[in-house]
């Protein structure tokens, strides 16, 4: 199956690339961009450098009046400290992450793409995943519900106030998919529902799935959104709630976010429970921000993955190009 997926990816890439290469590329067809972001976090009195660089490109090429080829790629580079027990704490290496790499076609009946890209429910989880740092911690438990996934087919269509997405994950060790529908009740109010499921590993018959409901309100500089999730991972049930609110005035924005994820089992290692406050200043392509996360759970140790259950202060600056 993995070889078939890779063959499908290469074939689709070749098909949509040939007409693009045959014509002159102009700024309307293809663009490069990225960001350089310096970030430092103080977590339980421990300092961590969380700086990153992103670089990518995307483009379109009209094959004919009914068919347009589309493609996108994006890399992220971060610093990774390796602790070798020495007095200086070890060497620093660069870790890279392929965030997007997909190709596809766009028609009047929707867009179909294949590669590393968003899942169907990403449109819904992005209702609340809009903070500079402290949001989007509750939907990454398995492949189909995460922000992005490899070897993914995504179909998306927008008809007036209605948006529909469907995706299939074709990885050998994470097969599954999802669907999402969103509707704008008013220009300022949108509601959405979604479902995602994944077979988490080779030979693992325990499927993981999640149901999602979300809503958001936008008006001038005000954004208020919420996301509720209920599902199971490897036969262990979980509940999750995300909430986000922000107010933008001039070149400034203040926000508050709440992330809650709880499993029914005795192991609290996967649980998330915190509230965070952020302030950002935005001047053209330059942004500076600061945030403070307050852990609300019983375990506030900084030892767990992503330091989710620890109080943390972060400050950062970003230049986008």
Description:
The protein has 321 residues and is mainly beta. It has two domains: 1-28 and 42-118; 119-148 and 172-321, Porin. The protein has two helices and 17 strands. The protein has a 16-stranded antiparallel β-barrel with strand order 1-3-4-5-6-7-8-9-10-11-12-13-14-15-16-17. Residues 1-27 have low confidence and may be disordered.
Question: Which helices and strands appear, and what pairs or packs with what?
Answer:
Blueprint: H1 2-21, E1 30-43, E2 46-49, E3 52-62, E4 68-81, E5 92-107, E6 110-118, H2 122-125, E7 148-159, E8 162-171, E9 174-186, E10 189-199, E11 207-219, E12 222-233, E13 236-249, E14 252-263, E15 272-283, E16 286-295, E17 312-320
Antiparallel strand pairs: 1-2, 1-3, 1-17, 3-4, 4-5, 5-6, 6-7, 7-8, 8-9, 9-10, 10-11, 11-12, 12-13, 13-14, 14-15, 15-16, 16-17
Q: Can you give the helix content as a percent range?
A: under 10%
Order of helices and strands: HEEEEEEHEEEEEEEEEEE
**Sheet of most strands:** 16 strands, antiparallel, barrel
How far is the N terminus from the C terminus?
39 Å
CATH topology descriptor of the largest domain: Porin
Mean pLDDT: 86
CATH class of the largest domain: Mainly Beta
Content-based structural category: mainly beta
Tell me the overall shape. Answer: globular
Strand content: over 45%
Parts with pLDDT < 50 across at least 5 consecutive residues: 1-27
Please list the strands of the largest sheet in the order they lie side by side: 1-3-4-5-6-7-8-9-10-11-12-13-14-15-16-17
* CATH architecture descriptor of the largest domain: Beta Barrel
Whole-number tally of structural domains = 2
């Amino acid at each position: 199956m993995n070889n078939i997926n890779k063959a499908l990816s290469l074939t689709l890439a070749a098909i949509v690339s040939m007409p693009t290469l045959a014509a002159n590329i102009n700024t309307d067809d293809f663009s490069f961009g990225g960001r350089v972001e310096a970030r430092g976090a103080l977590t339980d009195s421990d300092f961590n450098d969380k700086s990153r660089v992103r670089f990518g490109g995307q483009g379109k090429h009209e094959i004919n009046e009914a068919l347009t080829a589309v493609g996108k790629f994006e890399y992220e580079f971060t610093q990774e400290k390796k602790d070798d027990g020495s007095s200086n704490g070890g060497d620093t290496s660069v870790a890279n992450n392929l965030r997007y790499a997909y190709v596809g076609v766009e028609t009047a009946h929707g867009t179909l793409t294949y590669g590393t890209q968003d899942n169907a429910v990403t449109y819904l989880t992005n209702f609340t995943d809009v903070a500079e740092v402290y949001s989007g911690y509750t939907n990454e438990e398995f492949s189909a519900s995460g922000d992005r996934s490899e070897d993914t087919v995504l179909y998306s269509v927008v008809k007036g106030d209605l948006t529909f997405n469907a995706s299939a994950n074709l990885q050998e060790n994470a097969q599954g998919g999802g669907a999402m529908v969103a509707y704008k009740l008013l220009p300022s109010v949108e509601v959405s529902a979604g479902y995602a499921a994944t077979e988490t590993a080779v030979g693992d018959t325990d499927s993981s799935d999640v149901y999602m409901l979300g809503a958001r309100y936008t008006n001038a500089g005000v954004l208020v959104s919420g996301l509720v999730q209920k599902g199971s991972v490897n036969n262990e049930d979980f509940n999750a709630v995300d909430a986000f609110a922000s107010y933008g005035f001039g070149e400034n924005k203040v926000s508050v976010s709440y992330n809650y994820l709880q499993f029914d089992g005795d192991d609290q290692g996967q649980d998330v429970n915190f509230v965070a406050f952020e302030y950002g200043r935005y001047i053209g392509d330059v942004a500076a921000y600061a945030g403070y996360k307050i852990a609300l759970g019983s375990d506030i140790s900084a030892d767990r993955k992503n330091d989710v259950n620890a109080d943390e202060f972060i400050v950062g600056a970003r230049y986008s190009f």
